[in-house]
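Study this pair:
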Amino acid sequence: MKNDPIIVIGAGVGGLVTAALLAARGQNVMVLEAAAEPGGKMRRMMVDGEAIDGGPTVFTMRHVFDEIFAACGGALENAVTMRPAHVLARHAWGNDRLDLFADPTESEAAIGAFAGAREAQGYRAFRAEAKRIFETLDKPFLRRGQTNPLGLTWRMGLRGFADLCAIRPYESLWSALGDHFRDPRLRQLFGRYATYCGSSPFRCPATLMLIAHVEASGVWLIDGGMHALARALEELAQNNGARFRYNAPVREILTERGRASGVILATGEHIAAHAVICNADPAALAAGRFGPAVRKAVPAVPPARRSLGALVWTARARAEGFPLSRHNVFFSNDYPAEFAALSSGTLAQSPSVYVCAQDRDDAGHIATTDGRERVQIIVNAPPTGDSQRLTPAEIDTCTQQMQASLSRAGLILDLPPGSTQLSTPADFEAMFPSTGGALYGPASHGWAASFRRPGARTRIPGLYCAGGSTHPGAGVPMAALSAFQAVECLLRDRASTSPSRQTAMPGGISTPSAKTAASA
């Protein structure tokens, strides 16, 4: 029925932004979330009574969220307190250490001091190429709906084919990095950006060097961590009339005459809907987790095409022996072996380790006084949480190997058992069903991977998808952009069945004008 709500399943970033944008345009929106609070993967963990980010920790592409808040009658700077990071990340290989900075000239100078003038020159060329690739794809691909190579070429205009080839889709990122860097440590550092979308630098296209440009364009530190952003988006949606129901898992999506018509909750409650936007991983649709009627809404993703999972420790720890910044990466001494192990479905014997020191600023100043600080530690893992649970012995071994990787750089982390929580791929599978614990949707392996990601529209009218597992890709800003696209598709479909004047909205959205529409 026309007066039934638009139901958003899931309060992850994609669901929160979808709800906010729709509510700001006068739509009747209800968000149903299985968990007790918003955020999805951008969750918080309570350890010793303190909240620690248990998901994404790096906030980039602030302008996307400025657009979202402006479109909904708010302002990001009034919703969260944040400041730009001077140090983007600290990287370590044993005793060798390299910082990257928000100022590219500082990064270039640091690389020169670390590895020589030729590598600094290579970084300059790499940065220029990463920027060019990002700018080539930003408007025609990242900010528009899913397409195919021919459609993307058409969107790019007269130079379409030449531009498409110039984004280097047929070369691996690792191979392309060899054009810029001879020092294997630098190839490792910039190859790590593939893991931002859960992929291997040896198998993903060189196109993904655009991620380096995104991070180099600015990292912001949010007071209260990334979960504070989730709360701000929830409030933005509520201020515009969206309703949220937590602890309300959806058991089934219903259809009537081939169109999505409502949902049934785990409690058996039936809620009719004008449309449904699924912020769960689309793999759950294909696996039948939302019932047989929508099982064929999107193509299934074979386990071999899943992105990486992770072991994530959240703790209040004591850190000694290494000057932690906010974001820190401790690299494996054998990167090919690390990803070979992950590709074969096993944990790496010598893993790279990411440490977010949430109580530190980027200069390393710590805000606590008792000697303990909030940390999140990530080690990549195969996405086998639905088929091959890690044994306690395997977890103990991985914890020891993680600590060994840190100790090579001098870092000793005391992780008290009572003040540490560990999330494994099996835990992530329980939270995000049918993923095996993959945290980024399908892996970005091969030139065609980006075109295979589900778009906002599904095969079932009235059912849409939004989130980091859909187009345009993984990560917080990409999940937000997917919400723009889901809203655009839904409102265009609604407009096609009812006469109304169109008005342009931020992010390329064209929606029916209404007396409640927010100003651009």
